[in-house]
Amino acid sequence: MPGEPPKMIIADQDAAMSKAIAVTLPTTFHRYCIWHILNKITEKLGIGECFSEMCKCIWGMDKKEEFDAKWEEIITNNGLQDHAWLSSIHAMRENWVPSYVKHVFSAGMSSSQQAESCHSFLKQYINQKNTLMEFIVHFERALGS
């Protein structure tokens, strides 16, 4: 409804973003972008059998208990019990795992897809080393293509 805060926002798990959402929109559920999380998993573990198992666990478990049991099995079978980042992301599962976020309507969205698409497009034309003038030229080219 117009004038009311959104029920949910999908964004990455950046601490400043989380705090800003909690302060300015205290009744809004902050769902973490699963694209960022899966991307980070590939950075930490690579793309292989373990990643494939994790994807099946994340997307294929309908119940929280099923997810937790399968996650624990994957962690144990791959000797990842002491992996700090995986432990931290598991602790935040109530903000990103599909079986945990069913209580908030999301119209099937689980990532900041439109923003990611835009970022990907723009990265073809610009980078952080561009001067302001180069940025403007590259940005105009991107819009013209």
Automatic annotation (TrEMBL):
Which residue ranges does UniProt annotate as crossing the membrane?
none
The protein's UniProt keywords, in alphabetical order, are: Metal-binding, Nucleus, Zinc, Zinc-finger
Q: What is its main location?
A: nucleus
Question: Where is this chain's protein located in or outside the cell?
Answer: Nucleus
Q: Does the keyword Nucleus apply?
A: yes
The record places domain MULE transposase at 2-39
Entry GO terms, CC: nucleus
The protein's matches in Pfam families, at most eight in alphabetical order, are given as: MULE
Concerning InterPro entries, the annotation shows: FHY3/FAR1 (IPR031052), MULE_transposase_dom (IPR018289)
Q: Does the keyword Nucleus apply?
A: yes
Could you cite one Gene Ontology molecular function of this protein?
zinc ion binding
Which GO terms fall under biological process for this protein? regulation of DNA-templated transcription
User: Taxonomically, which superkingdom?
Assistant: Eukaryota
**Biological function:** Putative transcription activator involved in regulating light control of development.
Record family assignment: Belongs to the FHY3/FAR1 family.
What's the name of the protein? Protein FAR1-RELATED SEQUENCE
